[in-house]
Write a structure and sequence with these properties.
disordered N terminus, 8 helices, 382 residues
C-alpha cells in the first residue's frame, strides 16, 4: 500500500514521502537557489487574502485544551488589480519551522520558503458579479502546509474561481496566527499507528472543510467578497491525505459537488452504497496504477457517479504539489523523469478540466480520451 507522508524519511526532497532515495547533499550545504513557481495561465489577475477562522463549536481535536478549532486559510480569487505587493508564500517562522521539522537544513536555508515569490496581489479587491465564482477548497498533504498548493490555487483563480486552501492546525510543523502564535505539529507524536491515525485525520479534515464552507458561504461571510461565491458550485481537491479527505468531506457534506484526489491513499472510506457525485483520481503510475493501492481499487469501484482514474508517467508523490518543482530547482533527484514544472502543468490542466466540466458544465474532452498534448497521462479506468 502506498503510504501517506511520514515525518522523518531521510533523503527525501523537502521530506515529502516518495519512497525513493535522493542523492545525499553534504551537511551545511543548504541551497541559495531562489525558489520559484510558474505564472498562472488564466485570463484574470489574481488576488489573495489570509483568514483566521475560529470554530467555537468544537475543541481542537488534536489539542483538546484549546477550546476552539482555529484554522488559517488563504483565499485566492480573480481581481482587476495589477499593482501593489504580492502575498507571501508563507511567513519566515513557518518556513523555519517546516525546514527544521522536516530535517532538511542540508537542502534549504531556513527562510527559503518565505522568499518564494507569488503571483497574487495581497488583499486586492475581488472582481466578478454576485454569485459568479465557483469555489474550490484545497487540502494539503499530512505535515505539508497550505502554501504547498499555491501554484494550483493561483491558476484556478486566474480562470475565475475562488480558491480556499486550509492549514489543518497541529498537523504540520509551524502554522503562524496573526498575533504571532505558532502551532507546532502535535500529531507528529501520535501518528505511528497509521490504521487508526489516518481515518481520524480524514474525519478532522472533513469537519474543517465544512466549517470553512460555513464561514465563506453563510449569511455573514468571513471574506468581504463572499457575495461573489456561487454556493451551488463547490469543489474540493487535495494532495496526499488532503486528496483522501476530499472523499471523506463529500461523504459528510453534500455541498461539495465534485472532488479530486491527487495521489493520496484513501483508506477504504466509501461505504457499499458508494458516492454518486463526480470524482477524479490523479496519481503516479509507479504507485497508483490499478492493483498497486488496494484502497484506490476499492474506493474507485464504489464511485457510482461520473468517475475517472488517471495516472501520470514519470511522476513521484511530490510531483502533484509545489515541492516537485522546488526539488528540481535545488538539484535533488527524487526519481521523477517528468519535471516538476511539467507535473504542475498537468495537475493544473486536469484539475481545471474537472471543475470546468462539473461546476461550470462545460464539457472537457481531455477527460474522456488520451491527449497528444499530455502523452504522460493514461486513463486507467472510467
Amino acid at each position: 500500500m502506498h503510504l501517506v507522508h511520514r515525518r522523518r524519511l531521510l533523503g527525501t526532497a523537502l521530506a515529502i514521502v516518495t519512497g525513493l532515495t535522493v542523492l545525499p547533499q553534504p551537511a551545511g550545504a543548504a541551497t541559495t537557489v531562489a525558489l520559484s513557481l510558474p505564472a498562472p495561465t488564466g485570463p484574470h489577475r489574481v488576488g489573495a487574502t489570509v483568514l483566521d477562522l475560529k470554530d467555537t463549536s468544537r475543541a481542537d481535536p488534536w489539542v483538546p485544551s484549546d477550546p476552539a478549532r482555529e484554522l488559517m486559510v488563504t483565499l485566492w480569487y480573480p481581481t482587476d488589480v495589477n499593482h501593489g505587493g504580492t502575498i507571501p508564500y508563507e511567513t519566515r517562522e513557518e518556513s523555519e519551522g517546516y525546514v527544521a521539522g522536516k530535517h532538511i537544513e542540508d537542502y534549504l536555508a531556513p527562510d527559503s520558503l518565505s522568499e518564494v515569490p507569488t503571483h497574487a496581489y495581497l488583499d486586492a479587491p475581488p472582481a466578478g458579479r454576485p454569485h459568479s465564482l465557483p469555489l474550490v477548497v484545497l487540502s494539503p498533504g499530512y505535515t505539508a502546509q497550505r502554501s504547498s498548493m499555491t501554484s494550483l490555487a493561483e491558476d484556478l483563480a486566474s480562470h475565475g474561481y475562488a480558491v480556499a486552501a486550509i492549514d489543518h492546525t497541529y498537523e504540520t510543523y509551524a502554522i503562524q496566527f496573526p498575533d504571532g502564535r505558532i502551532a507546532p505539529c502535535a500529531t507528529c507524536a501520535i501518528d505511528d499507528d497509521q490504521d487508526t491515525f489516518f481515518p481520524k485525520l480524514l474525519r478532522v479534515h472533513a469537519a474543517d472543510v465544512s466549517f470553512v464552507l460555513n464561514r465563506l458561504t453563510g449569511a455573514h461571510p468571513a471574506w468581504p467578497g463572499g457575495r461573489l461565491i456561487d454556493t451551488s458550485r463547490i469543489g474540493m481537491a487535495g494532495h496526499s491525505a488532503g486528496g483522501a479527505a476530499a472523499l471523506s468531506t463529500m461523504l459528510a457534506d453534500s455541498r461539495v459537488d465534485a472532488g479530486i484526489d491527487l495521489d493520496g491513499t484513501t483508506w477504504d472510506q466509501l461505504p457499499g452504497t458508494g458516492l454518486s457525485r463526480p470524482f477524479l483520481f490523479l496519481g503516479t503510475q509507479a504507485g497508483h496504477s490499478p492493483g498497486q493501492d488496494p484502497t484506490w481499487d476499492q474506493d474507485f469501484s464504489r464511485l457510482t457517479g461520473w468517475r475517472r482514474w488517471l495516472t501520470v508517467a514519470g511522476t513521484v508523490h511530490s510531483s502533484f504539489a509545489d515541492y516537485g518543482a522546488f526539488a528540481d530547482e535545488i538539484g535533488v533527484d527524487q526519481g521523477a523523469t517528468t519535471t516538476g514544472l511539467r507535473s504542475i502543468d498537468i495537475t493544473r490542466r486536469y484539475t481545471l478540466a474537472m471543475f470546468d466540466q462539473h461546476l461550470r458544465h462545460i464539457r472537457q474532452p481531455l477527460l474522456d480520451s488520451a491527449s497528444s498534448c499530455y502523452p504522460e497521462v493514461a486513463i486507467e479506468a472510467a
